[in-house]
Structures are given as structure tokens and as C-alpha cells.
Amino acid sequence: MNTYNQKILNKYHVVFLAQSVMIGTGLLSLPQKLSPLGYSQTFFPFIMGIIASFTLWPMIWLCSKFPNENLFRINEILLGKWFGKCLNILFVLQFVIFTAGIITDYMNLIESTALPEQTITIPVLLILLLLLYIVKGGIKSVANFCILTFFITLILVFFTRWAIEKGDISHFLPIFNFTGHEFFDALKNGYFSLLGYELIMFYFPFIINQKKAYKHAFIGIWISILLYFVATAVSVMYFSEWQLENVKFSILNLFKAGEFSFIERIDIFGMTLWIFHILCAISGYVWCAKQGMESLISKNAKYYLVILSIIIFFIVNMPFSQEFQKKLFLGSNYAGYAIIVSPIFLSLVYVIRKKKVQQ
Length: 359
Fold this sequence. Notes:
Helix content is 70%, strand content 0%. By secondary structure, it is an all-alpha fold.
């Protein structure tokens, strides 16, 4: 049995692991993903937060039954060694592809705004080198970087003040004037921005106070939800409905409303700081992918990180069409949804096989 005797994550680590890993590039494009709702998207992040809070509970409940095991090991215990390992392979693939998707999105942003005539090879290599440095230190290193990121990038909220001043508060009304189809379309696309809190099932064994893990992760989720609310509210005030639907990284465009005589393009400043959020997200997923490789091969090896980085680099630079890349990354997003709901089914399996599992 693979046990984790080293409890190294305190409550602040849990809060900001849940919060910072969620952000990635999802927040930048959230208004566009929620555009089927039009101006009624303002309060939609709260609905997503409620769903995240409910889905977090079975994750914590399941992990509390196996306090010294991560989800990779739990899959093998409940589903059998071979089926569990096959499922774990899919989880590792999802983490790797999802990471590549985050980096690709950020590279597309850089190419379209700051470096339109440059190749992305060098920036991707630099990001992966920073990723290796962060993840090499373990999950506590990732958590510390998440805390640092939160306080460094919090200043970006200040840059929305000019968009608020120039916005139209009447855009908030009427509210909830959308159809059921528009609601589910926005939920299907917008909830991608919340992916990341499910990783608690993989670092749960390292948490010191596991009995309060739900509370601390809950706080982290709702910090992000409040930031999402600010982003959507300001976007609704500042943009037209056409802009909400067609401008992909609209949050950066909010910064353009700022007026500083010594900064020509505030959006470039915001995009540069956003690399911290990118590194938080991909560090969390790559650390989990490394844990998955260790569970599959039953050996702890540092070079797994190098192997994962090479695979991610290949996916980001793969010689395939953008349409294929888009379908691949979209598929990994939906696989993320499957990981979120998997504890519900695993909990049922645990209840059915409880006596046999405990033997």
C-alpha cells in the first residue's frame, strides 16, 4: 500500500491550491464562453460556484475514507488493479493534454497581441523550464507558488476601475432573460473555467488537517468565484453584446480602458503578469500527472517530469491543423468533467464493496 506519511499542506496551501489552479486562461475568455446569456451572465459565476461546492463534497468524502491514498490508488482499490490502472492512464493523458491546451491558449494570446511575427518555440521552452523548477520541489512548492501568485496578480483588479467608470450600469437589467438552452450552453462552456479544484483528490494525502479540507477548498473556490463575478460584471458594463460574443480574451481588453501616461499598453502588462496564473494551473496538473506515472510504474523517478514536459512540448507544437488541436483540447476539457463527477460513482462502489475493501 502506498501511504503518505508526510503531511505538509496547511490550510493556506489548500485554499490557494484550490483557488489559483482554477484560473489559468479560463478567466480571460469567460465572458465569451458565457455570451449565450448576453448581459445576464453577470451573476452566472455564483451558479457555477454552487455547483462546484456540491461536487466538492463527494470528492472530500471519498478521500476521507482513504486518507493516505490519492485518487490513482483509490481507483485501483475500488475498481480492481487492471481496470483502475487503465482509468489512471486516461487521467494522466487528460492532465497532459489539458496542460498543453492551457499553454497553447496563452501562446495564441501572445501571438495575437505582443509577438505576431515570432515563433512560439522559445516561449514554450521557457514556460516548461519554469514548470520543471516549480514542480520539482513537490506539491508544497506548487502551493507556495499559488499563494505568491494570488498576491502578485491581485493588483490586476485595480486596472478594471477605468472600465467601471466608462461602463453602463443599465446593462445589468433585465436579469435572467435567457432560455434553458442558452443556460446549458453557457454552463457547458463556462464551467471549463472552474476546472482545477478536483485536483484536491490527488494531494489530499498531504493535507495536515484533512477534517477541514472541505472548508478550506470551499474558501478557495469562492475566492475565484468572486473574481469571476468581478470580471463578468465589469465586462457586461463595458462591452456590447457583440463584443462579449466575439472578443476571445476580453478581460485583457478591459485593461485598455486604463489611462497611464507612463504605460502605453496596459493589456501587455496584464498579459505578462498572467504567466503566474498559467504556471499555477499547469504546475498543479503536471504534478498530478507525475503522481499518476509513479502509480502506474510503481517507482518514484525525477525524470518523469522531463518526459511529461517533452510530451507537452510536442503536443503544443504538433504539426496538425488548428481544428484537430481544438477538438483534442475540447475533449480533454470534457474529460475533466468526467473526473469531477467520478467520485460520485466511486462512492457508490465504496458503499457496495465496503466490507471487502476494508478487509
